[in-house]
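Bump. Still looking for DNA-binding transcriptional MerR regulator structure tokens.
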Amino acid sequence: MLIGDVARQSGVSARMLRYYDSLGLVRPTGRTEAGYREYSSEDIRRIFHVESLRSLGLSLREVGRALDDPGFKPSELVDDLIRRTRERIAAETELLTRLRRIGAAEPAGWEDVLQIVALLQALGSESAGKRQRAALSSVEEVPVPVEALVEAVLSESDPNVAGALRWALAQSGEGASALLAEGLGSPAAEVRKRAVQSIAEIPDDEATALLRDALTNSDIVVRRYAALALGARGATDAVPTLIDMIVEGTNDADAADALSALASDPASADQIATGLVDRLAHGAVEPPARRRLTQALADIPGVTSSRALADLSQDEDRAVALTATYVLRLRGGR
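Sorry for the wait, here they are.
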């Protein structure tokens, strides 16, 4: 069969067949009297084998080795092809993500495109200073898509850069909270922590709802950050967790401050005082925790708090009794 017929049957161009011949990959077994290449059925079968192996991503050199080396074992080469394919997919996925982010920023011209690309590259820089400047620039100059900021903040370990990224997200408008919510379910504890910290700085209703949901998160660190943020927003849902933090001695001063702020509302003050008193009455609470609870109760106004402090002034724990007595004196002098 002549080269033109082979090209039509195999789908491989005559030019490529000549190239295969020059490499010694597929050499026609015969020539016509006029010197034209003449392919046998075995040659055509080899062409199909070459094309099949090329479709797997093998180079022509690797194809030749696979077909001609009797001792060739494909397993090692297949493993290498899998690795290379994964790397290629990762690179293409990264490119696709970058293109989508550029499109989402709706650049007005190529100058905007170049600025966005520069900011995206800076967000991934090894330099913390560059990452921080990029975070600040994403608000002040060409806006970077929210997805890029969320990805950056969830992976950022430098506290200064993370702070700048959280600030940028808080200025970015809608969409950030929903994306950050996915981070709350991450298997990585650090990612969950960064997610709740970022949500805590977004001042919208969606973020508040997410923080309320986070009070039941399986990660105690997430629950604590959510409680502190909700306390600052006047949400009494956080009261039980804040009291737990005082008992446990974890960020207890911040938790007590949050309870004090919530207690500016008389109805909330009574609820908080009751919760603190209930925990003080719990027999399993250790002396240091009872002292912290008493100090927190001292900052809660109202009748319930005052009555509890009067009882505590007679407490067996001298530190508790002295704290309660001192606070009652201050209240009596007002």
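The beta strands are 30-31, 37-38.

Edit: fixed formatting.
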